[in-house]
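Lecture 7 notes: from sequence to structure.

We start with a single chain of 67 residues. Read the sequence below before looking at the structure.
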Amino acid sequence: MTPNGAAIRAFREVRGHSVRHLAHLTELSPSTITRIEGEKRGSSDDTLKRIAAALDVPLEAITRENP
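Now the structure, written as tokens:
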């Protein structure tokens, strides 16, 4: 799965979460969240599942299909 950084950022902002707060919820570093949102870093399925759960959205809402 490929992260959709713009979608992750949009859901995070709509929920009023800072990067730091989302990092806390997912037990990831703030820099990892920033890199994923900027699509400068791929991420594991587990990481994306943790982000989706923290944002209370389906996994499909924050990922792109691989080409």
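The mean pLDDT is 94. Keep this in mind for problem set 3.
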